[in-house]
Amino acid sequence: MSRKIILSADSTCDLGKELQEKHQVHYYPFHIVLEEKDYLDNVDIFPEQIYDAWRQRKQLPRTAAINAAEYMEYFRQWTDEGYDVIHLCLGSALSSSYQNCVLAAEELGHVYPVDSCNLSTGIGLLVLKASDLIQAGMEAEQIAAELKKLTGKVHSSFILDTLEFMRAGGRCSAVAAFGANLLGLKPCIEVDNRDGSMGVGKKYRGKLDRVLENYVKDRLDMYPDIDCGRLFITHSGIDEEYIERVKKTVQEKMTFREIFITRASCTISCHCGPNTLGILFMTK
Q: What GO terms are given for molecular function (predicted)?
């Protein structure tokens, strides 16, 4: 008799409450340390509080990974009851959470960690795939193996409206930030789906609405074999008009069965800053 499966993920998967509940996904939150206080991401601190701390006091938080002991305590509530657990982690190039999850899994058994090699709803796309496979009756070990094969098919990128938060967090130099702002450049940040690391792609120039439209067209033209099942539009806090313009541009380019709009967690938002938006999808 096959064991029942619990589907779980780091809070950085950014699915939003509706999808989380629909697919019965359990989250473990990352730590957000702001002004020497430890908070849990999207539990007792939210992106607007982070932006306020920066605007008012020039304070930015640091993020802290989930440690092995925390994972063990979290998973044990299910493994002790005879469940298998599939857990999708933030990309291993960005955090030690995956390595810590593996340590907990080795100690407990019946826990299957998956390095998403991604972030935000790039992880979310894999979570929804896992949900599909659970519904199809596949066993946990097989699902984890299948998800690992799919990481290279997830494509995640974002447009940054400002480099201020990247510079303040030490992820780009003051000179680079100044030069980009002076020239009105808005870089596309691309996720490497081999490990989850981030790099700079095309740099766009102009007003944000036009930049977002051109970005969407470029990304959808880049791949000849896009899976038209699901696409995420994920942002860090942006006016609704930009979201609608992006959605309309997507729909004019191609038809997706489902388009989801979600807001990024604190972990993602504190590095990117407000007005960041990306489209995330898979190829076949």
A: lipid binding
